[in-house]
Amino acid sequence: MQKKQRSVRELKIGEKGTICCLQDQEMSLKLLEMGCIPGTEVKMNSRAPLGDPVTIIVNDYTLSLRLDEAATIMLK
Amino acid sequence: MTEVIGSVAATAVKTPVKNAISKIALIGNPNSGKSSLFNQLTGLNQKVGNFPGVTVDKKTGISQLTPQHKVQIIDLPGTYSLYPKSLDEKVIIDLLYNKKSALYPDVLIITVDASNLKRNLLLYTQLADLGIPAVLGLNMTDVAETHGIKINVEQLQQDLGVPVVPMNARNGVGITALKILVSQQLEKPAKTFYQIPEELMVLVRQIRYYFELKNDYLALHYAHQYKKLSFLSESDKSYIEELREQYAFNSNTLQAAETIERYTIINELLLDSVKVTRAESNEKFSNKLDQVLTHKVWGYLIFFGVLFMMFQAIFAWATYPMDLIDLGVASLNQFIQSKFDGPLVNLLTEGIIAGLGGVLIFIPQIAILFAFIAILEETGYMARVTFMMDKIMRKFGLNGKSIVPLISGVACAVPAVMAARNIDNWKDRMITIFVTPLMSCSARIPVYTVLIALVVPERYYLGFLNLQGIVLMGLYLLGFLAAIFSALVMKLILKAKERSYFIMEFPVYKMPRWKNVGLTIIEKVKAFVFEAGKVIVAISVILWVMASYGPGNAIETAEQQVRQTAVTRNLTEAETNNLISSHKLEASYAGLFGRAIEPAIRPLGFDWKIGIALLTSFAAREVFVGTISTIYSVGSDENISTIKEKLLAEKDATGQPFFTPARSFSLLIFYVFAMQCMSTLAVVYRETRSWKWPMMQLIYMSGLAYVCSYVVYQLFK
Question: Which residues of chain A does B503 touch, with a Cβ-Cβ cutoff of 8 Å?
Answer without folding.
Answer: 27, 30-31, 34, 63-65, 69
